[in-house]
Amino acid sequence: MNTKKLHISTIGCQMNVYDANQIAGVLAPLGYSLTQDIDTADMVVVNTCTIREKAEQKAFSALGRLAKIKLANPSLIVAVGGCVAQQEGQAIVKRMPHVDLVFGTHAIFRLPEMVRRIESTRCRIVDVRLSDTIENDTVVVGPLDTGQISAFVTIMRGCDNYCTYCVVPHVRGREASRHPDRIVQEIRMLVGQGIREVTLLGQNVNSYGNKEALCSFAELLARVNEIEGLGRIRFTTSHPKDLSEALIQAFGSLEKLCHHIHLPVQSGDDLILKRMNRRYTRRDYLKKVQRLRTVCPGISITSDFIVGFPGETDRQFQATLDLIKTVGYDGLFAFMYSDRPLAPATAFSNKISDAVKKERLQTLLDVQRQITEKRHQKMVGKVQTVLVEGPSRSIDTGQALATAPQTRWSGRSSSNHIIHFTAPDILLKKKQWLTGAFVDIMIEGAYAHSLWGRMLNEPNGEPSSKGDTIVAA
Ligand code: 5AD
Ligand code: SF4
Fold it and tell me: Ligand 2: which atom is nearest the Cα of residue 162?
């Protein structure tokens, strides 16, 4: 078989990272293998995101740059996938003559057929069909990186929530869940290839299986927890309105489920929440946070926030700051509201100026920075079990780890904190590779985005066989 080179550039969320892997997986039988080098590629896929204005701009500039590359290499196949492809469809091929293929978020499994047609007839194709169910629930495990120990697994797609600022229901379609047997099968295959940790993905994992009457998300987690060889389970994202007591209880009973939940709240003001169509109140949210902390003391909680939603007053913004302080998040993502073409809030009046949005964003991030620092400081002197991801490249003191990098490693705690640590000399002498191992780390230093510590024990569990490049003695 001919080997052809495929370059995928991915913009946006974890869902797109998973999709990129699926794209590589479905195109492998056609002879495509991945390359980082765009100039020598036979096919380039730009996997786009449209969740916020900035992401969409990034997608269009990535596509613009490809025009030159195509000029130098006219046989190159240029494909656009993801949410911008879904949103813009035909308009992209009209506007960009160098684009051969536009495929929407539900078209990945039709890619081989479409790419074959383009290879043989050099036609141009647009496929942005959306379906309400998952027609092709096939298990595809794309190529893994050397030493990769963590992988994403999509358990559902789409969203039925229609938050008024959000484009997702319009570009990813109706909510539909994969069959639990397929999910378990996929995770087993990943574990067979050295994966230790999976993150289950969905826009709202807590409503997993509801429509199809498959099983609940908590039941799915219990099944995944049984998979031999799997070390850790994470999931994202959970909608607060659907966070069930059964899921809260799972944090207390499933030993592989990491003690971290990403629970986007978006705003701390009830009227804004209502206008966002979030369907919970600040009080409902705080009650759930309290339940989580009762069942799983020390659980790490992170969230998403939007500042400058249309009509947001200074008082309403203060309510958001107050919520952040009340919860004491371990971390958060905050975004300036941006109009999305298909989202209802785009037509709302009283838009907030960019200057005010910027100022609010800065204030919010400053408040959280102080909270994070305090929470990090509290971890100093405590022991965390870390799943080692690989040699540590840098720590956020800005210090490059040029000296003896093989003694410095990094990984994540169950609470999803990034922890850098030094391994004892004895392991270096034994040329012990730590990627994929669980190690206990005494935390000795805290920085803004990470923690630093010292390894206490010999590694637990077999380190990943993929990391067989033994450290230099
Ligand atoms: N403007 C700003 N932020 C948005 N998000 C979603 N839509 C918008 C928008 N129009 C943010 C939300 C969501 C995260 C993935 O992106 O906070 O949780
Ligand atoms: Fe968008 Fe709301 Fe669905 Fe999340 S829950 S994807 S914010 S519509």
Answer: 8
